[in-house]
Amino acid sequence: MSAHDTRMHKQLAELLRKHSGQQLMANRHWRVDMALKPILRRHSIPDLNMLGDLLAGDSDADLARECVEAMINNETCFYRDQANFALLTGPVLDSMWEKRSNTKRLRIWSAACSTGQEPYSLAMHFASNPEKWAGWNIHIHATDISTSALAQARNGRYSQFEIQRGLPVMLMLKHFDQHETEWQLKEPIRRAVTFAKHNLLDAAQGAGVYDLILCRNMLMYLCDDNRKQVLGNLATALTRDGMLMLGAAETVIGQTDRFAASQEFRGFYEQALSR
Ligand SMILES: C[S@@+](CC[C@H](N)C(=O)[O-])C[C@H]1O[C@@H](n2cnc3c(N)ncnc32)[C@H](O)[C@@H]1O
After folding, report:
1. Exposed (0-12), middle (13-18) or buried (19+): which is 137, by Cβ within 10 Å?
2. Is the full-model pTM beyond 0.85?
3. What class has domain 82-274?
4. Staple 142 to which of 12, 110, 158, 190, CB 3.0 to 4.6 Å?
């Protein structure tokens, strides 16, 4: 690697950290280089070193946003981590049902929702259990930092590859219409989710709003301080007796004093105060 490459990756890493809090690990350099190539072509920028210099100049906010979005990992799929998702839609939601049966009101936040498969998986679950949730007021709010991921999420349109990942065929046929090589999510499920742009490093709107927060496969890209900050923001947004779900490879242990691991549900976390 040349001195130029090293400087360019440092510039890109700084841009990514500033905008999203994410760290650019050396083992992701080649992926990032690939992801930025289309931007070079679109803007007629001769090479990555020149792009690094343009970004360091801090004068083109749109170019910076485009590069940050290209560098971020948006990997997701329907019903991701099936065993954990089954725990969520089974015992965890059963316990929420008990806790909220007096108000019949449930507020769910899919934080870092990427292209929408996570909140839509939940919406399809509720639609598949109409008797159990009859008369309930359920709101699924989904946010992400990426404008392009959110645009796809709002459209609810997925490629053949995306639709095949994790989604049972029965649900695909029930909730999607095929348009040539793509699949369009039908209106009732799309309407069940609201989307908004939100950087999880910023304070959430409103305290104690959500009964359940899903923040999966995002914290792992942050440094310790930013992870602590995001977990603090999530704790503030969660009700006192609410639940936080993280990705299968993530934990709050040793990261924050705001959450404690649920004794009942593996991979779920409660407000530390509720103990
Ligand atoms: C790997 S995807 C995970 C998507 C989904 N939660 C899942 O588990 O399948 C990580 C997502 O986090 C989002 N993200 C990264 N940094 C963020 C930040 N600071 N605030 C909000 N979202 C962020 C990315 O745009 C991306 O869509």
Report:
1. exposed
2. yes
3. alpha beta
4. 110
